[in-house]
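Kindly inspect this today.
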Amino acid sequence: QVQLVESGGGLVQAGGSLRLSCAASGRNTFREYTMGWFRQALGKERELVATTRWNRGNTYYADYAGFVRGRFTISRNNAKNTVDLQMNSLKPEDTAVYYCAASTPPSAGYAYWGQGTQVTVSS
């Protein structure tokens, strides 16, 4: 079992920045997890924002949805079992509840989810 706790959401003006953090606990193989940030705006479906995936050794791949590429950066600290999402140049359309999720091998899907943190961007 993996527990995920997000933090760092809040209210920010358009053009501003926020940093979300997700702390994972429950297992000792965090370095092998694929970690993702998702978001869900009111009345809309949940969508993938960014992922960090273990390749081998100390190599990780990051991938981003087109609507955040160049503005958001996902990073992880395996020593602390955390994954962060740095969000810059925020837009009102980035307003949503942001969720951290974990996919643990050998499973392919995201089996573990945090409770979510609200991000509100005012115009």
